[in-house]
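During the reporting period, our protein records have gained a structure token line. A sample record is set out beneath this paragraph:
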Amino acid sequence: MTVLLNNIEHDPDVELRVPESDVADPEVTFLIPAANEELTIGETVDWCLEGLRTAEVSGEILIVDSSTDRTAEIALAHGARVLKTPKRGLGRAYIDAIPFVRGRYIIMGDADATYDFRGLRPFVEEMRKGYDFVMGSRWKGTIAPGAMPASHQYFGSPLTTWIFNRIYGSRFSDIHCGMRAVTRDALQQMGLTSQSWEYASEMILKSVRMGLRTTEVPVNFHKDREGRVSHYKRAGRFTNVQAAWISLRIQLVYRAEFISLKPGLVAAAIGLLFTLPLSFGPITIGSVTFSLYWMLLGVLLTILGLQSFFFGCLAQVFCDHSGRARARWTEFFRYTRTALVSAGSFLIGLGLTVALIARWLTHGYKLAAPNSMLEHLAVTGVLLMIIGFSLFCFTLVLHATGVRYGVDDKR
């Protein structure tokens, strides 16, 4: 007899169905979203049960179901718990399920019988060693012929995994593997919010940003069952491109400093190299004369680089789980010290421009001769004023990231 429980406290649209053969106090929870998978759900649940028996571990299977077919009934009959939810996206399905997870270790995967849940043992062994996040790797395991389009297997997945490793300094071999494991505590600390496919990317990048202990284990990836239409095909021909774009977008958002902080420093350094030596006039090296135009290019590079560096610092602060980034940058850019440096830079810059302004006022509103020392000094002065003002504004914003308000329980 099936017991029906309504989770009114969390969401009245979510309903938990418990099988008669329910397990008490499981160590492992298989957490599997499903949408119209009556063709494969029975085999998926059976594989989970076999994996639990082989690994000699107590566990439950929690199917998060938003189907309109018999997926829920079949899953219950095979011994799984079923959480009935509205169809609100893959990420939302996982988020809805978190309050109902009882296991200490959570094994995630798809309900289409492509990931072989019978290979549970390596995941459990690594989790018991103290790893917080264990990724499956199809490249370290097996990929059945025809299980993955050639464009994914030989181009898309390897390329995006390579990009991810370059951006985050990780060493994953398969960031798109759908079978993965995470401790319940780590999953709750992640505070995942993505509602769709990007949920998987958010999870893996947060595991890196949070400094979780991570590792990989091989998994076997099977071909779709005959007669089953994949989710990509159901969603349309451009779904693969959309998924890749979403994955890349979230990778860059959570690691924005990768393309702004260090590149900004380099650009600013090059800009200053063009600007400061030319402050007293043109410089000729061989057949090349570096004049006012080179100086203006240097000003442009310095300003762009400096702003990029500031944005990178703030991106680190906003995306830092530990708070170490904010502590480091606020210590480096101490308010009083930085305010004095900013004021000094602005005043020196203002002083360098005064002579050119005075000459303009006293000579019939005409500037000095082209490439004169006054013009060069004035350009350096303008740059120093911009640096001073920008540095002060950045320092204000940086320290404003520490502003906190009390929590009003009535709101």
